[in-house]
């Protein structure tokens, strides 16, 4: 891949070449083999014992996690020197996607390998890594991540759990509680956040069995019933000073950056869940008969399958694009760390953690976009899956019923979608104010351009129209966002409705562009002549046209909120000019896409 470091946030203003993104078509043979191994493990070990897992059999979950550890499935993110595989993020993303078919067990694994283990991988001292990572990679010990409290969900820094240094300076004494902790019922190692002296937000590694550390009863959940979810209680719990993770008062660097990775990994799991749902639903539609014919032969059912497939194609394109970019930043961080370690002064663990945090935060905005889009796509796909199953979709015997229930938590996990929507434009503005993005300069330059006549070009090449329309969507966002900044200034953060509309525009732009870049990259390789390339072109055309309708609606609503009278009419006329382009027959395209899904009975590209 071309060296294009630091693309974070630039997609709203810059054109990005297809070679600057990683796509599923770039998977290596080794990556595909890892996915095949995970798929075989799920089919051979997890699916046969699915009912027991859903009944919340702790011992079985732990047993299966240790078997997964023996295969290396728990150590993908752990460096080789600590017993892991040290895989790149594209590989671990593919692993998360593949394991998604394991339902609740996949959540237990995901919480362990992601938010449970990664804090130590990125921010642990050498001693902490040696002590914990080999066991976490093998499954000998299971990890949990403990941030949420009864009074602080989305407001993580409002945590009430405290830590005070003991008089002899050997340990910190924790008091407080945590809520909704995944893996709590059987975890051995807990990443716990508390405020030292009630003020300095700090991360700690807490081991099961410490005095005063109690685990509450299981929550009775709507879905993900086979995963453990319990509260935790700390009553003068002594935690050795050597178990402070990172620096005192810098716990937010760990918490928020690990959440960024968690959001991204959750999006990857949604890709796997959507693909499974498409396969289950297409197979059912191909066997269920009504009025003397299979329901898959009815155009409206075929159109639903097409919409499900298109949304999943776009989601998949976004996830692997982001994975490739995170890989680049972490490789750069690792190089910087090695250079520091070989210098005369050396590099401290704290420095390494700060560099890792900076690398991850470069794409914090994109991680939030992935999380929001993917969780909402999976909900849409699951909902349509139930609808196509009809009454059978409401019966527990059919897995689509469980997928529907299980998917709902994803919009709450890892920061609610509402919070993530607030973060998307907020993070963009912070990057601009720091001078990391020329956002304001681009906005000012655009204002003069919009006063000039705009001629719609001819579109002769495949996806030339879609590429043009994405550029127009970016201009629309800059125009509306620039107006919002002019009108509200620093008070913009209080205008949550406008921020949400700006976020939704950004999400649609990133989604459109990700699908477009992936398809164009495919065309460069095949000349656009393969059936796979043509299907991808069709899906991209449909998605861009429908996404542009959404962008226009979001922009119009924002303008009506901010302007009135003649000023509003001027802005709406500019918007209309930016939205001009020929339309495609999406009904015909969806018929073609739907027919391919029906024939194959699984997700297609």
User: pLDDT under 50 segments (min length 5)?
Assistant: none
How much helical structure, as a percent, in the residues?
55-70%
* Cα distance spanning the termini: 22 Å
Count of beta strands: 10
- The CATH fourth-level homologous superfamily of the largest domain: Butyryl-CoA Dehydrogenase, subunit A, domain 3
CATH class of the largest domain: Mainly Alpha
Largest sheet: 8 strands, mixed
- Radius of gyration equals 25 Å
Number of helices: 19
Average of the residue pLDDT scores: 93
The secondary-structure element order is HHHHHHHEEEEEEEEHEEHHHHHHHHHHH
The third-level CATH topology of the largest domain is: Butyryl-CoA Dehydrogenase, subunit A, domain 3
Q: What proportion of the residues form beta strands (DSSP E)?
A: 5-15%
CATH architecture of the largest domain: Up-down Bundle
Global structural class = alpha+beta
- What is the 3D form? globular
Tell me the count of domains: 4
Word description of this protein:
This protein is of the alpha+beta class and 605 residues long. It has four domains: 10-142, Butyryl-Coa Dehydrogenase, subunit A, domain 1; 145-245, Butyryl-CoA Dehydrogenase, subunit A, domain 2, CATH 2.40.110.10; 251-418, Butyryl-CoA Dehydrogenase, subunit A, domain 3 (Up-down Bundle), CATH 1.20.140.10; 438-600, Up-down Bundle (Butyryl-CoA Dehydrogenase, subunit A, domain 3), CATH 1.20.140. 59% of the residues lie in helices and 9% in strands. The chain contains 19 helices and ten strands. The strands form two sheets. Strands 1, 2, 3, 4, 5, 6, 7 and 8 form an eight-stranded mixed β-sheet that branches. Strands 9-10 form a two-stranded antiparallel sheet. A hairpin with a 3-residue loop joins β4 and β5 (200-207). It is globular. It starts with 28 loop residues before the first helix and ends in a 5-residue tail after the last helix. The mean pLDDT is 93.
């Amino acid at each position: 891949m071309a060296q294009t470091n630091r693309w974070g946030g630039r997609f709203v203003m810059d054109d990005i070449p297809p070679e600057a993104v990683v796509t599923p078509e770039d998977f290596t043979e080794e990556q595909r083999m890892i996915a095949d191994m995970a798929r075989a493990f799920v089919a051979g070990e997890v699916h046969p014992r699915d009912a027991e897992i859903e009944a919340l059999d702790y011992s079985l979950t732990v047993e299966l996690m240790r078997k997964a550890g023996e295969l290396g499935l728990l150590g993908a993110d752990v460096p080789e020197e600590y017993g892991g595989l040290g895989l790149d993020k594209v590989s671990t993303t593919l692993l998360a996607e593949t394991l998604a078919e394991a339902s609740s067990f996949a959540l237990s694994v995901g919480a362990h390998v992601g938010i449970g283990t990664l804090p130590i991988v990125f921010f642990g001292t050498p001693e902490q890594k040696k002590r914990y990572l080999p066991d976490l990679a093998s499954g000998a010990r299971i990890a949990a991540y403990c941030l949420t409290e009864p009074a602080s969900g989305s407001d993580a820094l409002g945590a009430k759990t405290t830590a005070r240094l003991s008089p002899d300076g050997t340990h910190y004494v924790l008091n407080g509680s945590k809520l909704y902790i995944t893996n709590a019922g059987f975890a051995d190692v807990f990443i716990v956040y508390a405020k030292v002296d009630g003020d300095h937000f700090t991360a700690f590694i807490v081991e099961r069995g410490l005095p005063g550390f109690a685990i509450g009863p299981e929550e009775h959940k709507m879905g993900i019933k086979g995963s453990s979810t319990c509260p935790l209680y700390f009553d003068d719990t002594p935690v050795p000073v050597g178990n402070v993770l990172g620096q005192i008062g810098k716990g937010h660097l760990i918490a928020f950056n690990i959440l960024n990775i968690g959001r991204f990994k959750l999006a990857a799991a949604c890709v796997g869940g959507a693909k499974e749902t498409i396969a289950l639903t297409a197979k059912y539609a191909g066997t269920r008969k009504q009025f003397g014919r299979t329901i898959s032969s009815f155009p409206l059912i075929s159109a639903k399958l097409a919409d499900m497939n298109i949304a999943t194609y776009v989601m998949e394109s976004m996830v692997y694009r982001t994975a490739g970019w995170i890989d680049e930043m972490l490789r750069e961080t690792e190089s910087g760390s090695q250079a520091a370690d070989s210098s005369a002064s050396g590099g401290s663990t704290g420095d390494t953690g700060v560099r890792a945090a900076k690398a991850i935060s470069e794409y914090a905005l994109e991680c939030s976009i992935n999380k929001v889009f993917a969780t909402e796509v999976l909900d849409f796909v699951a909902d349509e899956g139930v609808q196509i199953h009809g009454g059978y979709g409401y019966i527990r015997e059919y897995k689509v019923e469980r997928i529907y229930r299980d998917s709902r938590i994803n919009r709450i996990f890892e920061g609610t979608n509402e919070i993530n929507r607030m973060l998307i434009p907020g993070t963009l503005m912070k990057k601009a104010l720091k001078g990391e993005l020329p956002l304001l300069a681009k906005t000012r330059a655009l204002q003069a351009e919009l006063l000039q006549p705009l001629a719609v070009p001819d579109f002769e090449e495949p996806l030339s129209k879609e590429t043009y329309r994405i550029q127009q969507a970016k201009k629309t966002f800059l125009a509306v966002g620039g107006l919002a900044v002019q009108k509200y200034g620093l008070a913009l953060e209080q205008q949550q409705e406008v921020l949400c509309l700006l976020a939704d525009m950004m999400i649609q732009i990133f989604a459109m562009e990700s699908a477009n870049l992936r398809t164009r990259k495919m065309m460069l390789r095949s000349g656009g002549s393969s059936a796979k390339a043509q299907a991808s072109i069709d899906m991209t055309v449909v998605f861009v046209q429908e996404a542009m309708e959404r962008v226009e609606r979001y922009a119009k609503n924002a303008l009506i909120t901010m302007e009135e009278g003649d000023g509003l009419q001027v802005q709406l006329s500019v918007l209309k000019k930016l939205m001009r382009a020929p339309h495609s027959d999406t009904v015909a395209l969806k018929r073609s896409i739907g027919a391919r899904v029906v024939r194959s009975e699984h997700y297609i590209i």
